[in-house]
Predict the structure.
Amino acid sequence: MNNQIFTLRVNGADHDVADSWLGESLLDVLRDRIGMMGSKGACTQGECGSCSVIVDGSLVCSCLVMAATAVDQEIVTIEGVAPVGAPSDVQRAFVDAGAVQCGFCTPGLIMAVHDLLERTPEPSDTEIREELAGNVCRCTGYGRIIDAVQQVSVARTTMAEGAR
Amino acid sequence: MTDTLTGTTDRTAIRPGTIGDSPVRPDGIEKVQGTYEFSSDLSADGCLFGATLRSPHPSARIVSIDVSAAWKISGVEAVITADDVPGQATYGLISQDQPVFASDVVRYVGEPVAAVAAIDPETARRALAANDVTYEVLQPLLDPEVAIAGGHDPIHPDGNLIRHQRIVHGDTSATGPIVIEGTYEIGMQDQAFLGLEAAIAHPDQGADGVELHVATQWLHEDRKQIAACLGFSEDKVRLVLGGVGGAFGAREDISLQVHSCLLALRLGRPVRMAYSRAESFLGHVHRHPATIWMRHHADADGRLVNVEARFVFDGGAYASTSSAVLINGITMTPGPYRCDNGTVDGFAVRTNHLPCGAMRGFGAVQACFAYESQMDRIAAAAGITAEEVRLLNAMRTGDTLLTGQPVLNVAPVEECIRETAALPLPDEPVGGHARADGSPDAMKLPGGAGRTADAGDIVRGIGWGVSIKNLMYSENFDDYSTARCRLADGVATLKFATAEVGQGFITIAGQIARTVLGVDDVVLDTIDTTIGSAGSTSASRQTWMSGGAVDAACRAARERLFEAVGAAHGIEPVRLMIDGTDVIDTSGDLRVPVAEASAGLDIDETVEYHHPKTDDLDENGQGNCHTAFAFVAHRAVVDVDPELGLVKVVQIATAQDVGNALNPLSVTGQIEGGIAQGLGLALMEEIIQVDGVIRNPNFTDYLLPTFLDMPPVVATLIEQPDPHAPLGAKGVGEPPCISSTPAIVAAIRDALRQAGVEKPLNRVPVRPSDICL
């Protein structure tokens, strides 16, 4: 333990973190110190992606990031994707397409899909699979998740073309 | 998306949200927004953190347990051992043979020895490390055959044989010109749900009762076992379902339930416990590893004449559901095929391996890998195709199992095979389509990201798997379900204790109520033990059992509604029915919206749904022991690099006997998710134990199928409503993971054959070395 306080900027707001131990993971600090329980821990070694968050624009496993190294960086978690009750297009598509069963992998996947579609608006099947291969889902067999990603891609492209 | 789903039912006239539609999950928005509370997200003011001290040895005598050093650590609030269990010292699903804490001996690596509670998880972990347990290490029993032969002293007072059951049926000496013999091995698979074991226990004032919020599959069974160990009557223990992050059988047994309640009662404060992934591998039961010998006798055409088999299931240190897994396995020996004669010897034994119990498919998975491997060899001997041998032998309604039990359910085995065969093969060439620039798409090759395979070396194979699964519990077990329906002002409120583990029962419960009662608004009450048992979310049984209970409770409420409407309008209630969202008079003009008809009423009906009684098996394994059956066919297409031993599954086609698809999107999710677990068992998933010590208790070394491993699934739903099922609907959860495994392995064998290599591949998961060496 040390009593040094550091500040994390999460979803646009500053959070002072006290009582954190040196080397405590960003996942544990988000959940246990700041009280944001949306990011999930399922393997705590970067294999399953359930804890995915965005740090300074990069998708990372928050279980592998030391919280203290994320000072002065913009952290976006599942809580920062959309206001409660007003889901994003990706979140809505996951529900509509049947991409959610137990839902434990879902917050991490939502982060990964938003990240993917921002970088690659019209991903191929292979691109979706390769980009999301760091997120394990044990319930769905992935088919409906891929469907959800494609639905959002098509909807966004259609909307962009309509705007032209 | 190349995935397709076809079915045989016209769904155009379905009212939104009712049976046959695919409304969204009621918990969907919370889950995608991260606000859904899983059991691992639960906390309470002033709560402490529990942790479990576990045995490092597969077999040892406990000489002493010294907890004094742990007590000296600031922040440690409790240290408990077997001496602190006030009630029954052991628990277990079928026989109560597992200690809450080991006291005299430990029987597997990971067996709980003590538990601590502290002010934070780090302090709890330090307290565990400070405990000093002295062990006298014993020679472990690790070979199931030694257990059967009596070659090791009993490792448990109940002995080393958990159950032996024979099946003897028909002319056991019958034979034919084709005799095929083989021995098959199935490795130990983990359920690997993502949401780790977690619970929070709230003690009552005065510590004379406790409320436990826990992720489980069966609240009432947990309560029974917890109460016995706490020395409480059941009414002093209340369970509430904490958000469940997947289950797949691993939450049917007790893990941290008793420990967390003991700590909370000891301290008079809430206690949270949560397992790490490594601890989870030790803390729940797994799929039984099995060795299965089979000898099939067939006529020259490939028609089954007789089957002999010997099953050995390694149950690990404690019995759990081993005896039921054994029965499922051996009664499925011939698979979904007619066979009049057979002899089966089945053993479930105790060893010092990790305890095994329920996992999706429950014994039927192991049997299926053996019998489907045999069917392909029979086909080869008879000179017919894999598809032909299965059509030739396909079971029909009215055929009997080796137990003498007739299969009275819809049994569309032939339709499953034909509809699977009719699904299109993948349009991708071997090695996948080239990329836009003409270069090969490495991600489509076996080995994927490794980019090691050369497209020119790849061979493609096709394989089949067909299976039968019993639904609900067997052998005279009354696994009933309870549901309550209240109806007032056009709103139906449903109450049940059915564990929602991700499968979507809460979605179909609402659909049933909307259909039966003509309401749009359905409220789901808390899932807890303040109503009667729903039985376990396992054995593909909740759609049938809890769906049946919800349906019956809603029908009972509807009767009360009709009585009220009839009284108000001077009409015999029997003339009334629901049409859409209205109550109508079938022989008159009356049409009243249900919302209006139920205004001011307070209808409240609770119903138990029971399936027909089943029988025990006699000493020859004869008896109507199963409740109902479902069937499925799988066809796998794989690309294989024979030199490197790498496999890429290209497509799985399937036609599944679902009875009536209450929610086709949910059914699709079960099909695809189950196939992924079948693929995992075929190719990568195995808990490795060396000298009784698990070597891969983490997701780096225990491999799970990813987006890149899982191929597109093309599926057809065979919809023949089952007259025995309350809604015509069969359970759909387990069949997808049963025959997908042998289909994939058969496809690998087929690919190798085309490369001029004959490999038995008699063991799953298939390793690269099994293919290329």
Remarks:
- Chain A touches chain B through 59 residues (CB under 8 Å).
- The mean pLDDT of chain A is 95.
- The two ends of chain A are 56 Å apart (CA to CA).
